[in-house]
Amino acid sequence: GQNIDQPTEMTATEGAIVQINCTYQTSGFNGLFWYQQHAGEAPTFLSYNVLDGLEEKGRFSSFLSRSKGYSYLLLKELQMKDSASYLCAYRQGGKLIFGQGTELSVKP
Amino acid sequence: DAGITQSPRHKVTETGTPVTLRCHQTENHRYMYWYRQDPGHGLRLIHYSYGVKDTDKGEVSDGYSVSRSKTEDFLLTLESATSSQTSVYFCAISGPGPSGANVLTFGAGSRLTVL
Description:
The structure holds 2 protein chains of 2 kinds. In chain A, strands 2, 4, 5, 9, 10 and 11 form a 6-stranded mixed β-sheet that branches. Chain A has strands spanning about 5, 10-15, 20-25, 30-35, 45-50, 55, 60-65, 70-75, 85-90, 95-100, 100-105. The mean pLDDT of chain A is about 95. Chain A is an all-beta fold. By secondary structure, chain B is mostly beta strands. Helices cover about 0% and strands about 60% of the residues of chain B. Chain B has strands at about 5, 10-15, 20-25, 30-40, 40-50, 55, 65-70, 75-80, 85-95, 100-105, 110-115. In chain B, strands 2, 4, 5, 6, 9, 10 and 11 form a 7-stranded mixed β-sheet that branches. In chain B, strands 1-3-8-7 form a 4-stranded antiparallel β-sheet, with no helix packed on it. The mean pLDDT of chain B is about 95. The interface of A and B includes residues 1, 43, 89, 98 and 101 of A.
């Protein structure tokens, strides 16, 4: 099965900050990805980490610790349009292996 | 938009019938992928291709076959569809993204219902 785990659901308030965690176990790690998927749509690329540390891109940041097999996606100044599923995935050779996704609901 | 299209977008079929889904790209990328997405399971890799006539299995390949006779087309075939193969199928291509990393770009998806 998949050796990648993330919470199934999260709820947060508009304007707040939310952190979505992802843990993984794999050999031959080649990078950690985050994708966003709105209901009924295809996933779209958000961020990529291959080295330890924080990558910031506007309201979204992603962190990676390779030694701990851990990543998180940080969303700031939440907006209603951020309600979506957030998928983490690790690259193993030519394959991308996804977690089950975290369904984020943003409430007014 | 990355040039990737899937067909058909929706299909209803009966158990035991063959089904072929087509993925077409205009980006000339080497790697192409087929995933299925089901509630509670996220995206699961079925098969992928790393060049013409070069394919490999993913996590859930049983009951599926693929073919890649030219760079732009990657076909997914269900030889004899079963109800457990009712799902949304996504094709993806791998190409350069921000920061130079290769990222997956997904097609719009094909919703298959097997009755």
